[in-house]
């Protein structure tokens, strides 16, 4: 059990580092991973020795290391859905003028794996490649949660406590209401619940078994998401999500919520 716990902590710290585009300090990594600073430093240092992490001597921040690059390059050959989806996400950014994204469901999280910039000069930077949110947080996470089977969605809401970090808007009761609205509209809307003035909308991409596997989303400033424009944006999102859902080159999810290679 001690070995398994150490591996779990190391994996958590790797995810924490991967989610920080500018790197993280030891104290930040420990806080985000929910572990003691001394424990975090010991594990981070071990990962550095293995080449999985690198540390900037000037700033003391941790970054992904060269071995992670090599592993990622090899994994990309198996999980090629990003490049498959890129033209459709690019077309969505062109059609809306907003930043467009593809996020992957990984267990109880959504992970941004692709960002394409729109032409509108004012942008939101809530979402970057590598950013992780719990299901139900941000438009992509809400879109994924909303189309899980009722039993799975209820089980998640029963065990997840999002309020301490994300506020009362992410209580189970409030999320259930937003799930209902998302299912009715077909797409999710995040009315600046993460960052003031930053709106987002998303639609669910389903795998070959009809399960929510990815989310395609757009973000931008509030004035670009007025009530009269949102139905048009929603239709563009639904069209893009349907296109991606029917591309059988996209991998499908296994029972654990991670991508599996398609046939």
UniProtKB/TrEMBL annotation:
<dbReference type="InterPro" id="IPR036390">
    <property type="entry name" value="WH_DNA-bd_sf"/>
</dbReference>
<feature type="domain" description="HTH iclR-type">
    <location>
        <begin position="4"/>
        <end position="66"/>
    </location>
</feature>
<feature type="domain" description="IclR-ED">
    <location>
        <begin position="67"/>
        <end position="250"/>
    </location>
</feature>
<dbReference type="InterPro" id="IPR014757">
    <property type="entry name" value="Tscrpt_reg_IclR_C"/>
</dbReference>
<dbReference type="InterPro" id="IPR005471">
    <property type="entry name" value="Tscrpt_reg_IclR_N"/>
</dbReference>
<keyword id="KW-0804">Transcription</keyword>
<dbReference type="InterPro" id="IPR050707">
    <property type="entry name" value="HTH_MetabolicPath_Reg"/>
</dbReference>
<dbReference type="Pfam" id="PF01614">
    <property type="entry name" value="IclR_C"/>
</dbReference>
<dbReference type="InterPro" id="IPR036388">
    <property type="entry name" value="WH-like_DNA-bd_sf"/>
</dbReference>
<keyword id="KW-0805">Transcription regulation</keyword>
<protein>
    <submittedName>
        <fullName>IclR family transcriptional regulator</fullName>
    </submittedName>
</protein>
<feature type="region of interest" description="Disordered">
    <location>
        <begin position="244"/>
        <end position="263"/>
    </location>
</feature>
<keyword id="KW-0238">DNA-binding</keyword>
<dbReference type="InterPro" id="IPR029016">
    <property type="entry name" value="GAF-like_dom_sf"/>
</dbReference>
<dbReference type="Pfam" id="PF09339">
    <property type="entry name" value="HTH_IclR"/>
</dbReference>
